[in-house]
Amino acid sequence: MDEVIPKSDLSIDYDFNQHRQKQERKNGFLGQPLGQSFDIDPVRIAILFSGRGSNMRALAQSIADDILGAELALTLCNRPDAAGIDYAKTLDVPCAVIDHTHYKTRTAFEDEMQSHLEKEKIDLICAAGFMRLLTPAFVEHWQDRLLNIHPSLLPHHKGLNTHEAVLAAGDAQHGCTVHYMRPAMDDGPHLVQKSLWVKGDDTADSLAARVLELEHIAYREALPQAIDHIRFGKEQMGYAPIDNGDNGDNGDSPAYIGLAERQPKK
Ligand code: GRF
């Protein structure tokens, strides 16, 4: 029978995604030849969610299956009735349910979150459908270690009801953005954007469903950059997150041409 190797003892083989390999070819990887294995402590990830949890689920599966050098260490939910909790409890990591209504202030709620994050030695937080505004103090404490996903092509349509806003504005394109969180809502450098064409017969519900599919892909694509950023810092990464709203298209969605009028229904 095959020996079962504890996860923390696994070496990380640097057969990385294309971007990493390109960087390594250019810069070398810490002076080591390509293809060599390294023993590196995994980056420990917490996922925050509030409801259905489909992004939490997609992320948890990606971390387990696709993402090297990271491990899921905690899920955290602020609503005790959230549908995603049942799935989160099937994962082999603690699921903290912290009902924000039980705390008098945002800071008191965040102190409780912080104690769970510290207990699990979290390196990177992924807010994934987490519907609670975080205080500037919390966001600044986690600067460049706190990601969010937003269902619009930021900086367009910050806040809630983005699908309705896209339709009302007559935008030709819509999509989602994974970004580093900053104190201002839905602000911060972008890691990945995915876009789609708005169809003439789209409704807010159809857009929500189509954008959600992109969200699940976008977070997976953003994780390696965020993990590298934590591990090596931006100086050694050799690249920086996108910090404007007109980039991030990766070839499998229409080229980003601005939010022009969409085509009328034929
Ligand atoms: C997602 O569209 C997310 O971007 C938004 O709320 C939705 C949450 O969906 N903030 P789920 O809970 O991840 O399924």
Layout: helices, strands, pairs:
Blueprint: E1 12-13, H1 18-27, E2 37-38, E3 43-49, H2 54-65, E4 70-77, H3 84-90, E5 95-97, H4 106-119, E6 124-127, H5 136-141, E7 146-150, H6 162-169, E8 173-180, E9 190-197, H7 204-237
Parallel strand pairs: 3-4, 3-6, 4-5, 6-7
Antiparallel strand pairs: 1-2, 7-8, 8-9
Helix pairs in contact: 2-7
The chain binds 5-O-phosphono-beta-D-ribofuranosylamine.
The site of 5-O-phosphono-beta-D-ribofuranosylamine has 13 residues, from helix 2, strand 7 and helix 7.
In short:
The chain is an alpha/beta fold and 266 residues long.
Largest sheet: 7 strands, mixed
The CATH architecture category equals 3-Layer(aba) Sandwich
What is the CATH topology assignment?
A: Rossmann fold
Q: Mean pLDDT, nearest integer? A: 82
List segments where confidence is low: pLDDT < 50 over at least 5 consecutive residues. Answer: 1-34, 242-266
- Oligomer designation: single chain
Strand percentage, roughly?
15-25%
CATH superfamily grouping: Formyl transferase, N-terminal domain
Q: How many individual β-strands?
A: 9
**Number of domain modules:** 1
> Which structural class fits the helix and strand makeup?
alpha/beta
- Radius of gyration over all CA atoms, rounded: 19 Å
Order of helix and strand elements from N to C terminus: EHEEHEHEHEHEHEEH
Q: What is the straight-line distance between the termini?
A: 62 Å
